[in-house]
Structures are given as C-alpha cells and as structure tokens.
C-alpha cells in the first residue's frame, strides 16, 4: 500500500515571499528531467510523489520542493520553500516560503546534518527499480516509515554501519517505491540515481 504525501512532522510554516527564479533554476532543471522519466509524478489517487533539495546559505538550511507538488508538470518559485531549522527529537521543522516543505524534509535535514559534503538530495519513486535495488544498496528497515524521526535515525545508522557516505543511494524498504540519492551537487545526486535507473532499464529491455 502506498504511504505517501502526508506530513508526519510538526511543521512550523512561516508563509513568506517566494525565492528568486534564478535560485531554483538548477533544482527545476533536474526536477523536469526526473518528472519526464516518471520518477517524480502522481498516483492514480491524485497523490503526488518525489522531491528534491539543495543546501542553502547556513550549513543546515536547505531549499526543498513543497508538499504535494509531484503531480505538477512544471514547478515555479511558488513551489519551493526554505527550511531553516529542525529538531529530530521533537519531530519538528521550520520553513519559510509560499508553501509547506515536503513530507520527506526531515529525512533531507538529517542527511545535511550528518555530512557537510552533502549539498543535494533527490527522492523518487519507481516500484520495479525499488524492488531491483532492495538490499543491493543501503536499505532501511521495513518497519520504519518515511518522514519520521525513526527514518532519520535509520539513515544515521546506515551512515555508520553500511558505508552510505560512499554509496550515496538508499532504498526505503518501509516506504514502498521510495529511493533516495545524494551528492555534492544535484548533478552528482542525479547521476548516481540515473546510472542505476538506466542500468535497470537496459536489462529489462533485453
């Protein structure tokens, strides 16, 4: 059963003016590519999936696509928000912008906090690729749900125990179809994911 789209953390949303289009140009470039491939999109029930972010300004601040924007073919400045702080233990997050942060933002925040070299994060959905990569790359425990402190702690565990810092890609086994990649920039994060995608797609076509 797809469990997607619902914000599970306490969101302290300060509604404010959108960012400049130039600041989100790179995000939109890669978001458009992922949307074209169906890795970001919408389920038949109308729930959108997929999000991405980049580190912004202060070390643990980042810009992320807003909640329930996966269904939109093209995003603009109204669809991104800036996360300024978070508290894992309190399961809370603060964001500034015209829209609330993605339901996966607590996971993004954890990755930015763990490793200062992480500057971009991509979260996509694809059932067959998810099944293919399960336990072949870093994989979270099945009983851990997305967008929760437990998921954040699970990612911390994978950094410590499964060399996630070098692999830069993980499968969320308790979040059907969910895959995350990250890197020093969006190009690296996207290429890590797309290399796996095209490898799987080519094998499937044989």
In short:
This protein is an alpha+beta fold. It is about 30% helix and about 25% strand.
Question: How is the secondary structure organized here?
Answer:
Blueprint: E1 10-15, H1 25-36, E2 41-42, E3 48-49, E4 51-55, E5 62-65, E6 80-87, E7 92-97, H2 105-114, E8 120-125, H3 127-133, E9 138-139, H4 149-161, H5 164-167, E10 169-171, E11 178-183, H6 186-205
Parallel strand pairs: 1-7, 9-10
Antiparallel strand pairs: 2-3, 4-5, 4-8, 5-6, 6-7, 8-11, 10-11
Helix pairs in contact: 2-4
Percent of residues in helices comes to 25-40%
- Annotation, overall tally of beta strands: 11
N-to-C CA distance: 30 Å
SSE pattern, N- to C-terminal = EHEEEEEEHEHEHHEEH
Summed up, the domain count is: 1
Uncertain regions: pLDDT < 50 for 5+ in a row? none
Q: Which CATH class?
A: Alpha Beta
Q: By CATH's scheme, which homologous superfamily applies?
A: Class II aldolase/adducin N-terminal domain
Q: What's the shape?
A: globular
How would you characterize the overall build of this protein?
- The protein has 206 residues and is α+β, with helices and mostly antiparallel strands.
- The chain has one domain (10-205): Class II aldolase/adducin N-terminal domain (L-fuculose-1-phosphate Aldolase).
- It has helices spanning 25-36, 105-114, 127-133, 149-161, 164-167, 186-205; strands at residues 10-15, 41-42, 48-49, 51-55, 62-65, 80-87, 92-97, 120-125, 138-139, 169-171, 178-183.
- The chain has a nine-stranded mixed sheet, sandwiched between helices.
- The longest helix has 20 residues, at 186-205.
């Amino acid at each position: 059963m797809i469990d997607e789209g619902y914000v599970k953390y306490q969101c302290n949303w300060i509604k404010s003016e959108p960012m400049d289009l130039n600041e989100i140009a790179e995000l939109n470039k890669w978001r458009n590519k992922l949307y074209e491939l169906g890795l970001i999109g919408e389920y038949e029930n109308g729930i959108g999936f997929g999000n991405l972010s980049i580190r912004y300004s202060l070390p643990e601040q980042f810009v992320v696509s807003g909640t329930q924007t996966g269904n939109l073919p093209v995003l603009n400045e109204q669809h991104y928000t800036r996360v300024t702080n978070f508290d894992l233990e309190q399961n809370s997050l603060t964001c500034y912008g015209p829209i609330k942060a993605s339901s996966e933002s607590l996971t993004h925040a954890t990755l930015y906090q763990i490793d200062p070299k992480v500057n971009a994060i991509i979260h996509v959905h694809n059932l067959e690729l998810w099944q293919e990569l399960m336990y072949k790359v870093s994989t979270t425990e099945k009983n851990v749900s997305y967008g929760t402190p437990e998921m954040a702690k699970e990612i911390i565990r994978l950094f410590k125990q499964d060399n996630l810092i070098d692999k830069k890609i993980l499968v969320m086994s308790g979040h059907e179809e969910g895959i995350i990649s990250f890197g020093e920039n969006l190009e690296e994060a996207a290429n890590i994911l797309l290399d796996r995608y095209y490898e799987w797609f080519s094998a499937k076509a044989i």
